[in-house]
Amino acid sequence: MAETVAEPAEAPAAVRHVEETMGTVFSFDVRGGEPAVVRAALEEAVAGLHRVDEVFSTYRDDSQISRLARGELDVGECAAEVAEVLELAAEAERVSEGWFSPRYRGRWIPRGSSRDGPWSGPRDGSPRRGPPG
């Protein structure tokens, strides 16, 4: 009886990329696929990361969210995602009964706050109580 020995499989091509943005480092290691297609997808992903940083970074003075917080922009002048995030934050405030809020003392803060954050408890000044439900 003859034995068949398989040839070792060739390792798929690896496309690696490291990108610094948002105050951190993103590392991509993609195996398989057509390298040109993978590189194009990586370029798109990296552009998306930089766009999110340009819009939402609370550490960049020139980001839309920082400018909005300072009153230099109106929501209508920001990327559509900003209005969506603000709507989601308002909904989170409603369902958490104030345990999460995008405001502190009536002023909008880009990071929001939670019951475990420095502005714990309802925003109306009432005493802190246990979690809802």
From TrEMBL:
Cofactor: Mg(2+)
Alphabetic keyword roster: FAD, Flavoprotein, Magnesium, Metal-binding, Transferase
GO molecular function, one term: transferase activity
Catalysis performed (reactions): L-threonyl-[protein] + FAD = FMN-L-threonyl-[protein] + AMP + H(+)
Record Pfam families: ApbE
Keyword Metal-binding: yes
EC number(s) on file: 2.7.1.180
Residue span of region Disordered: 104-133
InterPro entries: ApbE, ApbE-like_sf
PANTHER family registered for this protein in UniProt: FAD:PROTEIN FMN TRANSFERASE, THIAMINE BIOSYNTHESIS LIPOPROTEIN APBE
Protein name: FAD:protein FMN transferase
Source lineage: Bacteria, Bacillati, Actinomycetota, Actinomycetes, Kitasatosporales
